[in-house]
Amino acid sequence: MSDYIANTLIALVICAATLVCGIGISTTLSTSAKAETMSINESMDQLEKLYNELYTFHKSPNFHKWGYGTPGKGDWADRVRDISKDKKLKAYIKTLVPEPVETEFLFQPIGPMFLWQLGRHYMSHDGHESKYTLGVKNKFEKLFKLHKSNKK
């Protein structure tokens, strides 16, 4: 009977850790469906919101330790992944900022998944800026500025 209790406790601890850290759980199941029906303006607003959110936690020691599993931040990566599936948004971004960003091995056009990569870079570099992060930040800021001027 004690093995049963021990195994049950272990299972409960694993479940609790999964819920607290957001490991393997997507809390935004409907977001990808929403991404398909959002207007370009709504998608750009969501992208800018995600960009700004990154800068609220990119220097956090918890983020550097737990990454995207940081309690309260796990859905951020899911939302970035979901909005990156928006083909209309990616095409629109390419019209505003067609020049690519230099990555480690490639030159790629800026897109929503660069937010995820930017966060990953901050996570592995204790939140410090680098040539890469400054380049990506400049592209995003240029993108948001051009979009706002197009909305007028």
Give structural notes.
This protein is mainly α and 152 residues long. It has one domain. 68% of the residues lie in helices and 3% in strands. The chain is built from eight helices and two strands. It has helices spanning 2-21, 31-37, 40-57, 61-66, 74-83, 87-96, 113-124, 131-151; strands at residues 101-102, 107-108. A two-stranded antiparallel sheet has the order 1-2. Helix 2 (31-37) runs parallel beside helix 5 (74-83), helix 3 (40-57) runs antiparallel to helix 5 (74-83) and helix 3 (40-57) runs antiparallel to helix 8. The longest helix is centred in the C-terminal third of the chain and has 21 residues, at 131-151. It starts with a helix and ends with a helix. The model is unreliable at 6-33 (pLDDT under 50).
How far apart the termini lie comes to 70 Å
Number of domains: 1
Q: What order do the strands of the largest sheet run in, or round the barrel if closed?
A: 1-2
Radius of gyration: 18 Å
Shape: globular
Which structural class fits the helix and strand makeup? mainly alpha
Main sheet makeup: 2 strands, antiparallel
- Structure summary, number of beta strands: 2
String of helices and strands? HHHHHHEEHH
β-strand percent reads under 5%
Give the averaged pLDDT, no decimals.
77
Low-pLDDT segments, ≥5 res: 6-33
> What is the helical fraction, as a range of percent?
55-70%
The tally of helices reads: 8
Summarize the structure.
With 152 residues, the protein is mainly α.
